[in-house]
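Sequence and fold
=================
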Amino acid sequence: MVSNKDDKESELNCNDGDGLCELHRPTPNHRSFIIVTITTLILLMGATIPTPLYGIYRNEFALSQISITLIYAAYSVGVVPTLFFFGPLGDAIGRKPLLILAVVISLIGTAIIGIAPGLEWLIIGRLAQGVGIGAVLGNAT
């Protein structure tokens, strides 16, 4: 009777000494995990950093309470649909390019908020941050 080990090796077409069996075994990639975790943490922190600035924006741009609420809502409008769209898209085209795109979108949103001349740009920046965060969370996890 053939042992279990021999059955597994024959299924993988392994021969002693050729090293093919080693190539087919999955290995954990801790570096990738750490990079994705730190990137997700930084992006989530970046999405919450503008919150204390809304008081300054309210005075600077003469914003009403409804305007501040719209800025907050723009983030949610960006995150929720993106979770549904980018999760399956990551399965189809690959997670790495999608995560890179998500980081770029989130950084663009942060830059827009940093140089926003008015309410419309604050909303666009928060929407971009929401899309970026939704794409990261949909694929990083």
